[in-house]
Amino acid sequence: MKNLTAFSALLVLVMAGMSYGQFRQRGGPTPQQDLDKMTKACGLSEDQVKRIKDNEEAREKATVDVRAAMEANYAAIQDAMKNEDTDKRNKLFAESSKLGQQLQEINKKYDDAKLAVLSDEQKAKWADAKDAEQTEMKAKTYTQYLQGMTKVCGLSDDQVKSMVAMQLSRDRAVEQWQKDNADVLNANMKAIIQAMHDKDPDKLGALTTEAAKLQAPMMDIYKKCDQDTMAVMTDDQRAKWIEYSVMTSFLQQVASFELTDDQKAKLKEALKPLAAEKGATIESVLSKLMQKLFGDVLTLEQKTKWLERTTVAMVEWNFISARLTDDQKSSIKDDYKKLVADEKNAPDIASANDFTGMYKLVYDISKKLQPQIQATLSDDQKKSQEKATIPGKGPVVIPAGGPGQVWR
After folding, report:
1. Distance, CA of 267 to CA of 247 (rounded, Å)
2. Sorting pLDDT into bands at 50, 70 and 90, what band is 396?
3. pLDDT tens for each residue of 167-219
4. Which segments within 275-407 are labelled E, that is strand?
5. Max CA-CA distance within the chain?
6. Residue of 61, 57, 3 whose CA lies nearest to 30
7. 390 φ/ψ angles, rounded to the nearest 5 degrees
8. What are the start-end ranges of the H helices in 1-45?
9. pTM of the predicted model as reported, rounded to 2 decimal places
10. CA 239, CA 245: separation in Å to the nearest integer?
11. How confident is the model at residue 90, as a pLDDT?
């Protein structure tokens, strides 16, 4: 069976949505601000203004309890995640979804009532006004974001305008895709919630895989926009942006290695030609630079330390459902040292001359350590661990790529 994934959790939170109070805190308009805009755009009469105010006051009263419940649920989820209480977390996620749906239904009722106050002509004006306002806000946001790229690459005003237009076009395409596929996406989301509620990890795994496939066309829209945006740049500008983006991200990711200035300089020197390669992307260059780091830059001591902390982290991750004690976690480190000290099991770090080779060592050593940790589990821990175990194969070993960014 498969572990409940972070992707599942994210889907649930997105499904539940943001509470009304959180929306206001993040800059959403108040009911009065929204009414002022509607009055200006549609030319509302005094009677219409009064009816809409009454509707919003009724909405506030109708949603106060569910909004309070959502805030309490959110706090409980944070607490459950902090305490690694998977069962409680999953129940709270399911509850969060139901509360979110409840709030959506209430809001739809009052949204429909507000629109019912308007004439058909006013409805059209209001829709146009909202669309224009949203487009303007997005354009400002994208323009501000591109200031950083402009500073690095020297983008022209025309290039910035072209890129912003691409972002806006992408957003419209995504919104239309989501609208066209709303029924199947919602059905999949509800099934995921039910699988979490039923504690059915096999079904959950299949459903989250299905969700990824369903959303593949949307991800293609984002990917194409990224490619089109990069195509607006000249070769020199593109190389500068890739070099800047990769180095900024890379140095953060490898901070634990405590690279020397000479090592950083060597990486920067290797990065320049990689960023200038035809067809280079940030992702492809990051991968090549990682191979360079392990192959030509790190010392044997640095790679040895990385191997230990990454292997220990992987084993801990594979037993996350068992909620290991501090003593058990400490024993992983002790068992690792004993294992690699044995001449038969000593890892050949010198021959692993790239990231792929080093990660294979992590994978192999973690498989040897897992039975020893399994033997220390209590009955309760074993029951919890069974939920994250493939029958007949033992605890799930994370494939190459690792648990998040544990390789740091």
Report:
1. 9
2. very low
3. 999 999 999 999 999 999 989 988 888 887 777 777 888 898 999 999 999 99
4. 389-390, 394-395
5. 88
6. 57
7. -85, 120
8. 6-16, 20-25, 31-42
9. 0.65
10. 10
11. 81
The model's confidence at residue 1, banded by pLDDT at 50, 70 and 90, is very low
Q: Which residues of 143-163 are buried (b: 16+ CB within 10 A; e: fewer)?
A: eeebeebbeebebeeebbeeb
Tell the burial category of 69 from Cβ atoms under 10 Å away from its Cβ (0-12, 13-18, 19+).
middle
Fill in the amino acid letter for 327: D
Residue 205's pLDDT is 82
Token couple for 148: 């950083």
CA nearest 177: which of 222, 145, 226, 133?
222
Token pair of 367 as six digits: 């498989």
Question: If DSSP codes are grouped into helix, strand and coil, which group holds residue 198?
Answer: coil
Please give the single-letter amino acid code of residue 257.
Answer: F
Q: What residues have CB less than 8 Å from 198, skipping those under 6 apart? A: none
The Cα–Cα gap between 340 and 134 comes to 59
- For 61, other C-beta atoms within 10 Å of its C-beta total 8
| Cβ-based neighbours of 210, under 8 Å, separated by 6 or more | 188
Kindly indicate the confidence band of residue 6, based on its pLDDT and cuts at 50, 70 and 90: very low
CA–CA gap between residue 144 and residue 160 (Å, rounded) = 10
Q: Could you report the per-residue pLDDT of 332-365, keeping only the tens digit for each?
A: 999 999 999 888 878 888 888 788 888 899 999 9
Is there a contact between 8 and 92 (Cβ–Cβ < 8 Å)?
no
Supply φ then ψ for residue 281, to 5 degrees.
-130, 165
Give per-residue burial for 341-378: e unless 16+ CB within 10 Å, then b.
eeeeeebebeebeebeebbebbbebbeebbebbbebbe
C-alpha distances in Å from residue 40, one per residue of 29, 44, 198: 15, 8, 50
Q: What is the mean pLDDT of residues 312-330?
A: 88
Please tell me the chain's helix, strand, coil percentages from 3-state DSSP, rounded to the nearest 5.
Answer: 80, 0, 20
Helix 6-16 to helix 182-197 angle, to the nearest 10 degrees?
120
Can you tell me which residue has the tokens 């995504």?
A: 174
In terms of DSSP H, where are the helices of 154-260? 157-180, 182-197, 201-214, 216-232, 235-253
pLDDT digits (tens, 9 = 90+) for 237-262: 999 999 999 999 888 888 888 899 99
Place of tokens 């800059």: 27
Q: Where are the domains of the chain?
A: 6-224, 234-297, 300-395
